[in-house]
Write a structure and sequence with these properties.
200 residues, 3-stranded antiparallel sheet, 34% strand
Length: 200
């Protein structure tokens, strides 16, 4: 009888210990994503400015022009033109106007909620306007009583450049420059594919 009681007690104790030391495997919690899910990247204004920095002061459009200009210069005494003192300069040449922007003047803001990058472009400005000297055709009628002076050339060149700029403006040079800049900015910011570039 004692042997039977001893065996029953040993069996019950063993079963209790096995249940107490049972190992329960826990599955690690993982952040599962569906195949079509993509984590949205948060873009900062600083990142955008770094991307735009290579543009710097950038000429986005150039227009060539051709101008004919004639000018005569005479000597005067108290608003009275001295006869026989007129010299003449006939000038024909091509020139080029370049317009563009300073990237520091471009304003940028980020709308994370709607996934938009807002860009405000300043007014384009003239970066360069000069005559192409290889294209110059100049005729002079000099006068021994009033020789042509260097500042007279400077005057006619300034007038040609002003007239050339006016012609380029009539052709819509500023609109063309803005259009090209928008294409440049859109391409530079295309790396932020979660965002759409909006020009204000």
């Amino acid at each position: 009888v004692l042997a039977i009681v001893f065996q029953i007690g040993w069996f019950v104790g063993k079963s209790a210990n096995e249940k107490a030391t049972e190992v329960v495997e826990t599955k690690p919690q993982t952040d599962l994503k569906l195949p079509f899910e993509k984590e949205k990247r948060i873009v900062t204004v600083d990142e955008i400015e770094v991307k735009l920095s290579p543009i710097s002061e950038f000429s986005t459009y150039a227009e060539t022009y051709r101008v004919k200009k004639s000018a005569d210069f005479a000597r005067y005494i108290d608003d009275f033109q001295l006869p026989g003192t007129t010299n003449v300069i006939n000038f024909e040449c091509e020139g080029i106007v370049k317009v563009g922007y300073d990237v520091d003047e471009i304003q940028v803001s980020v709308d994370d909620e709607n996934g938009k990058i807002h860009v405000t472009i300043p007014k384009a400005r003239v970066l360069d306007n000069h005559i192409i000297w290889d294209s110059v055709d100049c005729e002079e009628v000099n006068n021994i009583l009033n020789p042509i002076k260097f500042n007279q050339y400077k005057t006619i060149i300034s007038e040609i450049e002003a007239e050339g700029l006016a012609k380029a403006e009539e052709q819509g040079i500023y609109k063309s420059a803005e259009k090209n800049l928008k294409v440049l900015i859109t391409n530079f910011l295309s790396v932020f594919d979660d965002y759409r570039v909006v020009f204000d």
